[in-house]
């Protein structure tokens, strides 16, 4: 009797593990199983838009440095976010970092370098915090003196020191 | 008895790991139906039956509608549907109706009833079992033979191969194609439909194989849920061979109560369409149209059948594949548009050129092809092969089992894939 | 009974096959991705070093122990690895101390900037550091400390769980180095002779927060204490790379920490001219790492610092090291 019980318990433990593993892996696209369905597809909202000298350089879009009507300086930095290198193009008012994604040179980030360049919503370096809030609202994440807005797959962050915007950067959100 | 208690305890523990709120829902269903059945046994009152079914069904209906965002005002509530609700609700209803009709007596032992509903292997993906079947399984003296362990193990491994090796691979392609409606039309959409048929079948039936295998190891035989569905010659036949436990539930508790086929032709059509509407709704509030179209094809039945067995099979497979579109693309409109694009957009050459950019390497396609062909050969000769396997010696079974496990380890799609490119620049 | 034995034999055979499969599918780090082989080469070395370097690529690319031996007779070893994070450096130091007790431990402080939430923490780099470590308590701890989301401990025990999708990427390297390994470094120094001078660098970004995290300070404390307990002199350095930027705010914090804990700190960026580094010639990737010529200059300079300040033995004439030096000289030809 005892031996049998032990065997049974052992089997059950094994099976419980199998079931647990199975359940853990149960995430594929079987939508005819109502249990595996998630809530209906969310609509991706449009992200922030950025342009430099009239050229669209929104993070996540293809980038060709020759489109920019200005000579810049270029450097290659081993990438943190992607495979390969980050290609940094420094122009007079902004610095655009791009990288190869699936064979396409893609904008990764745009960093403002001076007060001459404004965001689409009209904020520039040297503006005050109130102007940022006025343009982008209260829905931001604050980390130290950096506030970050996320829209679509683009993050826009402002560094605000002594109530003055000292840095503006757009970055692509990478999963 | 001890064994059944253990089983119940384990089931409850695993179920609880999905969250306490789940448990409240399932307990509610178990208690209401258990008590109602007791009443029904003494006094066969229709009102008790109707109210209890209505309450349980309404929970399910509400959750389905909520899932489809029908109540935008309730968005903030953040209700999460309890795990397995689509399956156990059907089971409690079948129990109530059967007791009402006097098919069997109401259960006196609460433990057995709990175990019937909460038996963890079948709680997530079915099969939707009937109470008398399950009770007989629980009561029968268990014989844990090495043989049943082997057979259960083989079944589990086979299920895992279907799920991880075949379905997992197809899922990568499907997610690529379904993500970009603009870029992937025409030939891509067609490829997605065909592949999705395979994904759905391998994922679902693979899951069922695992449930069956686990149950077999525990000495419990469940009802088969698939019978080589893609070998069907008509849509009607397809529904006898696909998700059998759901089809038979719908037959017994929707179609026949409505009057079944023993009535006027018009009424029969109505009954069929309603049954498929329920089926569509059970899959999700977005799939009503899918249900109705299937219903129409079922009504057409043999009328669109040719003399050639293989042609019939091909036609049925294509119809089924086309209709899966409703599950591939997020909205009904998209699905219809993609179905249309197959006939209006001719971009085969584009697809050929782009074939290796869909997420799978050439080796992956080959692996997928080989295993899929293997699957269809197996399905076509299922009975013969199963018979053969039963007579094999333990040594051979061990070898098959081990080879299967190694295949899963190597060819399964799981974990974070390795990408050598990630490593090329290791300079920081 | 006979059946049982036969079945057991079959199972054993398959377990062996499984082990073999694990070996076959994991990257060999022999001809490609050689950075992954560094950590394990140490196990085969004679363990009588007086100086141990720990840290990220800024140690294994910039400091050549063989140069230090030739110049000052120092026996040093670089236990660096790509993107070695500070919690990894700590475990690697702990592991090293199980084998030997050096007089001096040199830690490159660049990794203080990354805590466990940094986007720079990457599973791929972690693997380069961890995969080839010998099993020990330290390896268990380093895995637990380093695992990113979605990872399982089991995938470090059975690499097939992680690397199974390499089945179609196997090359002759995977078969050639199935049972053997290849040493790619000279006492932990990876030779790179390429020249790619500095042309331009990205603009120095302003940061929201320059303070190192509590977490990193915690590990720095652990390293400090570990050295103290073992009577080892800890030396902090910052290698002279131009990028990623080593902010003044960073430097101040390390200076302060060093003062408070009575540790020596050398920011070698300040001595670039003295060392003689020419950034148009002495780097292989535009200012991130020094190449062979740059590393040689830096190693000579730093060997001098070590020798003058830390009472190291002059081992010149040691038979094994003379042979090593010869091999090294051939390799840099």
Helices of chain C, by number, come to 15
Chains forming the largest contact: A-B, 36 and 57 residues
The CA-CA distance between the termini of chain C, in Å, is 66 Å
What oligomeric state is this?
Answer: heterotrimer
Portion of residues within helices of chain B: over 70%
Strand order of the largest sheet of chain C: 2-1-3-4-5
CATH top level of chain C is Alpha Beta
**Order of helices and strands of chain C, N to C?**
HHEHHEHEHHHHHHEHEHHH
Overall radius of gyration of chain C: 21 Å
The CATH superfamily of chain C turns out to be: SGNH hydrolase
Per the CATH scheme, the topology name of chain C is Rossmann fold
What's this model, at a glance?
Chain B is mostly helical and 428 residues long. Chain B has helices at 2-16, 20-42, 46-67, 85-100, 110-118, 120-123, 131-139, 146-179, 187-217, 235-241, 244-258, 265-283, 288-300, 309-323, 325-328, 332-344, 348-354, 362-380, 382-391, 394-411, 421-424. Among the domains of chain B are: 2-139, no CATH class; 146-233 and 305-357, no CATH class.
Provide key terms for this protein.
heterotrimer, A: 175 residues, alpha+beta, two-stranded antiparallel ribbon, 2 helices, 10 strands, B: 0% strand
Plain-language structure description:
The complex is a heterotrimer of chains A (175), B (428) and C (333). Chain A folds into two domains: 2-36; 51-172, protein yfey like domain (protein yfey like fold, Sandwich), CATH 2.60.460. Helices cover 18% and strands 34% of the residues of chain A. Chain A is built from two helices and ten strands; from the N terminus they run αββββββαββββ. Chain A has helices at residues 2-25, 129-136, and strands spanning 51-52, 55-56, 73-78, 85-90, 94-101, 104-112, 141-143, 146-151, 154-161, 164-172. Chain A has an eight-stranded antiparallel beta sheet, with helices on one face. A two-stranded antiparallel ribbon of chain A has the order 1-2. The longest helix of chain A has 24 residues, at 2-25. Chain A is elongated, with a radius of gyration of 25 Å. With 428 residues, chain B is an all-alpha fold. Among the domains of chain B are: 2-139, no CATH class; 146-233 and 305-357, no CATH class. Chain B is built from 21 helices and no strands. The model of chain B is unreliable at 418-428 (pLDDT under 50). Chain C has one domain (27-201, 208-331): 3-Layer(aba) Sandwich (Rossmann fold). Chain C contains 15 helices and five strands. A five-stranded parallel beta sheet of chain C has the order 2-1-3-4-5, sandwiched between helices. In chain C, β4 (233-238), α12 (248-261) and β5 form a beta-alpha-beta unit. Chain C is globular and about 75 Å long. The mean pLDDT of chain C is 93. The chains are: A alpha+beta (175), B mainly alpha (428), C alpha/beta (333). At the A-B interface, α1 of A face α1, α4, α8, α9 and α21 of B.
